[in-house]
Write a structure and sequence with these properties.
The structure holds 2 protein chains of 2 kinds. By secondary structure, chain A is of the alpha+beta class. Chain A has 8 helices and 22 strands. In chain A, helix 3 packs across helix 4, helix 3 (104-114) packs across helix 5 (148-159) and helix 4 (119-133) crosses helix 5. The radius of gyration of chain B is 20 Å and the shape is globular. Classes of the chains: A alpha+beta, B mainly alpha.
């Protein structure tokens, strides 16, 4: 129960030059088709195993919503097949079909019936729906008196009242206050633990990286990449950076991470080194060590402005620290072809133990979404060890000191621990 | 295929029944008398026809000398025409009206016309009960003949549903269909012996009226209520066959086009 198999899936919309040509096509079945097919999704193949959590990423118009609609069965595929086992629930249009004049309870009933639940089942689930929505007395008030947050709470509670075998979520979680967001996320995690297959569409990198085992990248209606979320998201970022389609290269590093290089190539990094205070290549670093990042850049074309930035990310791909020469107010301007520039960033490795990756970008402005000359995700990896400092947890060494005072009956005595 | 549709309907019967119930609730929401209005409407209609036609205008059916006969004749035709027209007209726009829901939620689409037909039947049942009460009070209650109404209504509703679904699907693709049907219904009403009796028509027109598949239904209802006669089943066969064919065509059309319909809404 709960696996999804998609083979050669495609969806095309028909467009007719006029209503008359549609009529002609209907009436003369043997005649040649008068419509143009407009493909929004083509040749999509994947297999989700029961209990897996998979994120779908892609730019607007990449076909994500169409894919979800096909999976939920609201639209039918033009080509290929989908086979699924088990009950599917979708959090696509929360509150769709709510009638403003009816009470929350009546609407919950209607919503449950739209999901194919029987009256008895809904009555059984009603106490848990009420409890989860936390809208109190409002459950017996007309929905038009609800705030949009309350409507959304109720809708979410109804949609997830019964654990489905497959749950499809479309950005729905970005609605509601942060308390309810957490609560709904927790419910989704709970479903996962109980074995629900999860399919999420989101632009929220954090959500996909923390929940999903796998990510699928859609671009122009095709599935162009699937794999570990961090790698797919890095690739997606690189792809976003260069809508004019320069090459994107990925290589696998020794620890399994993917190195992604992309850009127009008008400026390139020829040498990237992380050096410790002894002048040696630093791949093992102690907490608090002073590091120097050396980047050698060669200019390949006349450039009006150049910004070099770097970003340190933790094992999960979460940014720990990022800065660039734009933000440091030291952009280079008016560079000519053939020039070579050396950059040296110095910073202390006030990081927690673990492995980190360093990504670099050469761009014109602050963001690489403008002109991206070169972008290197996971350009190098280094490991932080903690031999000398106190044994703290987390990714940042904040060097906390403690002072403790403990007044006693005998007078003042204080103890300070290191 | 009809089996699969039937199965889907059975699984979602809760949705259909619930929607019908909610439709009634929302109609009389915020009214003081509530459901009593469903009774007042047909009551007013029957009263108006009785008073205006039977008493004021002294309209008489040819060959019947009962003051109530014409108003019973009118009502039996009008009420059943009302059922037919309501089903066709509401089915015609049912997919368009619920376009948003169809596009965004996954549920058997056949539920939508099923809701329309069910709620039209409930409406009709209330109106019809008022009519029966009127017959009882005026001493015109038909005897066992009344039972004939069950198969009659069944075929009549089948006719309406088949036509309604077909028109509803077509209307999604060609809005002209909706416009055309509303004009057609007006002509159809006057082309059916509801307000007049076909015996009052010139002989040259009568065979044409008989070609109208709804004529045999109207005449059967009028026969039951005005004269207490069993319908002439033989005259109903063509209409019944037509109703059956319409249903098959409609379901076929619905099955073939329902996927495309979602993309078109």
């Amino acid at each position: 129960m709960g696996d999804i198999r998609v083979n050669g899936l495609g969806k095309a919309y028909k467009s007719y030059p006029s209503q008359w040509s549609r009529l002609a096509e209907w009436i003369i079945p043997s005649g040649k088709p008068k419509h143009r097919q407009h493909w929004v999704l083509q040749n999509v193949d994947f297999h989700l195993y029961a209990g897996e959590a998979v994120g779908i990423v892609g730019a607007n118009g990449a076909g994500k919503s169409t894919l979800l609609k096909l999976l939920t069965g609201t639209t039918k595929p033009t080509a290929g097949q989908i086979s699924m086992t088990g009950r599917v629930a979708a959090l696509l249009e929360l509150g769709m079909g709510f009638h403003p004049d009816f009470t929350g309870r009546q609407n919950a009933m209607m919503g449950g019936q739209l999901l194919g639940l029987s009256v008895e089942e809904i009555l059984d689930l009603m106490p848990s729906i009420e409890a989860f929505a936390e809208i109190g007395e409002y459950i017996d008030e007309p929905v038009r008196t609800y705030s949009s947050g309350m409507q959304m709470r109720l809708a979410f509670s109804v949609a997830t009242a019964k654990r489905p075998d497959i749950l499809i979520v479309d950005e729905a979680l970005s609605v509601g206050d942060s308390y309810f967001q957490h609560k709904s996320f927790e419910r989704i995690r709970e479903f996962r633990r109980a074995g629900t297959t999860l399919l999420i569409v989101s632009h929220d990198r954090y959500a996909i990286q923390t929940i999903c085992d796998r990510a699928l990248l859609l671009d122009g209606g095709r599935l162009i990449k699937q794999g570990v979320p961090v790698d797919v998201l890095d690739y997606y970022n690189a792809l976003m950076a260069e809508r004019d389609h320069q090459t994107v290269r990925q290589e696998r590093l020794e620890d399994g991470r993917m190195k992604t290089i992309s850009g127009t190539g008008e400026a390139v990094m020829t040498d990237i080194q992380l050096i410790n205070t002894d002048g040696e290549i630093a791949d093992s670093v102690e907490v608090g060590d002073l590091l120097e990042l050396r980047v050698h850049v060669v200019i390949k074309a006349h450039l009006p402005r150049l910004v070099l930035g770097f970003m340190i990310k933790d094992r999960l791909g979460q940014p720990v620290y990022g800065i660039n020469t734009h933000r440091l107010e030291k952009p280079m301007t008016d560079l000519s072809e053939g020039e070579e520039i050396s950059y040296r960033y110095r910073f202390p490795a006030n990081l927690g133990k673990g492995s980190y990756s360093l990504s670099l970008s050469l761009s014109k402005e602050d963001s690489h979404l403008g002109e991206n000359y070169e972008w290197r995700d996971n350009a190098l990896i280094f490991h932080v060890f903690n031999t000398y400092k106190e044994n703290f947890v987390g990714t940042s060494w904040l060097d906390a000191k403690v002072e403790i005072s403990r007044p006693t009956e005998l007078g003042t005595s204080s103890a300070t621990s290191p | 295929m009809p089996l699969a549709l039937g199965h889907a309907l059975w699984r979602y019967r809760g949705l259909v029944l619930g929607s019908v119930k909610r439709e009634f609730q929302s109609r009389y929401r915020n009214s003081l008398l509530g459901a009593a209005w469903t009774v007042f409407q047909p009551l007013a209609m029957i009263t108006v026809y009785t008073v205006v036609f039977s008493q004021l205008m002294q309209a008489r059916l040819p060959g019947v000398n009962d003051p109530f006969a014409y108003s019973i004749y009118l009502c039996s035709g009008l009420l059943t025409w009302g059922l037919f027209a309501e089903i066709v007209q509401r089915c015609q726009t049912v997919f368009l009206d619920n376009g948003n829901m169809i596009k965004k939620l996954s549920f058997p689409r056949i539920c939508l016309p099923a809701i329309v037909v069910s709620s039209a039947l409930v409406n009709f049942a209330i109106t019809f009960a008022v009519f029966l009460a009127f017959l009882l009070i005026t001493g015109h209650f038909p005897s066992w003949v009344l039972l004939a109404i069950i198969p009659l209504l069944l075929v009549h509703v089948m006719f309406a549903t088949g036509m309604g679904i077909a028109v509803g699907v077509l209307n999604v693709f060609f809005r002209d269909v909706g416009q055309f049907i509303s004009i057609l219904l007006q002509f159809w009403f006057w082309f059916t012996p509801i307000v007049y009796s076909s015996t009052t028509l010139p002989a040259a027109v009568r065979p044409w009226i008989r070609l109208n598949p709804l004529t045999s239904f109207a005449q059967a209802y009028q026969g039951i209520f005005v004269n207490g006669l069993w319908p002439q089943w033989s005259s109903l066969w063509p209409s019944a066959v037509l109703a059956f064919i319409l249903c098959i065509l409609a379901l076929n059309l619905f099955r073939n086009r329902s996927a495309e319909m979602v993309d078109e809404l």
